[in-house]
Every structure is written in structure tokens, then in C-alpha cells.
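sry for the spam today, last one i promise. C-alpha cells for design, 235 residues
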């Protein structure tokens, strides 16, 4: 009789467990363009100099790649296979298109400022941005939290600004407000003046690939989930 009760408890427990809704984790994603090697190396060099001036600034490296964001948002992790399928062919919009890293921009009215390489917003760039949103809208959800990001190595929390920026990307930073750029980090304005005058070089380039990444803090592209270039794709 005891054995029968034990078996029934196990059966009932398995039924309850199987009926429990599966937790569908959210991840913060960035659909992006990778810059050419020349632009990539210039961004890494400028960022390294900014880090010397301000060690607390964001860092660019092989795990935090320089990139041009087309779309950020929160999606369900279980939807990733369908998201990857939907991205196929998207890169063709800008494949072999000339892009232009035209200037280094930052706020010249403040003592400290966030610096970026401004990418000229061409017709092709605007088109791929709008098409990325159209393809992702069925998958983008709200209410993402810190757990959606790649954790900071030191265990520090993901910044509130980053969490809210991803939530508001389509509403506040898209379409007419789309501002293609490569983030460099925060430094003193006078130091950025020097970099702008003596280091930054405008350059025309072609983007070699489109990628899907999981975001880390400060909007850094950290974990590659998919790439239009099979040679660089992790998955």
C-alpha cells in the first residue's frame, strides 16, 4: 500500500510539473552592421585612448565589437530560431553599398561627453533600418529587465538607462530619429576635441556583414547569436 501511494505521488508530481508553464526568458538583442576593418580599427583605437582618459568608460574589444545599430529590443529566447530565419536576405539591402564614417560627434557644451563616430544616414541605411523593424515587430516584447542582458563580469548591475533605451528604441530612436553611429565612450570634452582634431579620420567603407547579438551594459554588442556571413557565424 505504501509503495502504491509513493507511485501515485510521483505520477501526480510529474503531471503537475508538466502542466507548469515554461518560463520564457527574454533577451536584449541588437541587429547591427559590422564596419570594415579600417573603421573597426579606428573605433578600437579611439576607444582605447578614451579609456586612458576615463578608465570607467565602456570598452570596445573582440567581446564588445564596434557596430552600427539598426534595431534594439527585447525578444523571447524561444523565438530565436524564427528570428534568425526572418533575418535572411536582409543584408542584401546594403551589400556593396558605400557608407561614410563622416565625423566624430559629442556634446561640446559639457565638461564630459559621450562620443560617437557619426555614420551618414544614406537611403540604403534608412531602408535596412525600417525593414529590420518590420521583420522584428512580431517578435519584439516589452518589460525586459536586467536578466535579458549579458551580465557584467564584475557583477555590477546593468544601467537603468540601457534597460530603458532598449525598451524605447522603436518608439524614440527609430524612423525619423534613426541616428546611425559607432559608440566610443565618455571622456572630457577637451580630450575629445584633441581626438577629433588629431586622430579621427573620415573614411568611406562597405559593411561586411549583418549580425544579431545579445546586448551587454551600455548597449555593447557582446554575444553573437547569428551572422549573415557564414565564415564568422557562431551558430
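last one done:
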Amino acid at each position: 500500500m505504501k509503495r502504491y501511494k509513493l507511485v501515485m505521488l510521483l505520477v501526480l508530481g510529474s503531471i503537475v510539473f508538466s502542466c507548469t508553464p515554461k518560463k520564457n526568458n527574454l533577451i536584449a538583442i541588437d541587429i547591427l552592421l559590422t564596419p570594415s576593418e579600417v573603421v573597426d580599427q579606428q573605433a578600437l583605437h579611439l576607444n582605447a585612448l578614451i579609456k586612458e582618459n576615463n578608465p570607467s568608460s565602456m570598452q570596445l574589444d573582440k567581446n564588445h565589437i564596434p557596430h552600427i545599430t539598426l534595431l534594439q529590443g527585447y525578444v523571447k529566447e524561444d523565438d530565436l530560431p524564427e528570428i534568425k530565419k526572418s533575418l535572411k536576405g536582409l543584408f542584401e539591402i546594403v551589400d556593396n553599398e558605400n557608407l561614410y564614417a563622416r565625423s566624430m560627434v559629442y556634446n561640446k557644451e559639457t565638461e564630459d561627453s559621450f562620443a560617437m563616430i557619426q555614420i551618414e544616414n544614406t537611403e540604403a541605411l534608412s531602408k535596412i533600418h525600417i525593414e529590420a523593424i518590420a521583420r522584428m515587430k512580431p517578435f519584439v516584447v516589452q518589460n525586459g529587465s536586467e536578466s535579458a542582458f549579458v551580465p557584467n563580469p564584475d557583477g555590477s548591475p546593468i544601467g537603468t538607462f540601457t534597460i530603458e533605451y532598449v525598451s524605447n528604441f522603436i518608439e524614440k530612436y527609430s524612423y525619423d530619429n534613426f541616428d546611425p553611429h559607432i559608440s566610443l565612450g565618455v571622456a572630457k570634452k577637451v580630450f575629445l576635441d584633441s581626438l577629433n582634431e588629431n586622430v579621427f579620420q573620415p573614411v568611406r567603407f562597405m559593411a561586411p556583414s549583418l549580425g544579431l547579438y545579445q546586448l551587454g551594459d551600455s548597449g555593447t554588442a557582446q554575444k553573437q547569436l547569428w551572422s549573415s556571413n557564414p565564415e564568422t557565424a557562431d551558430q
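The CA atoms of residues 86 and 135 lie 6 Å apart. ok im logging off now
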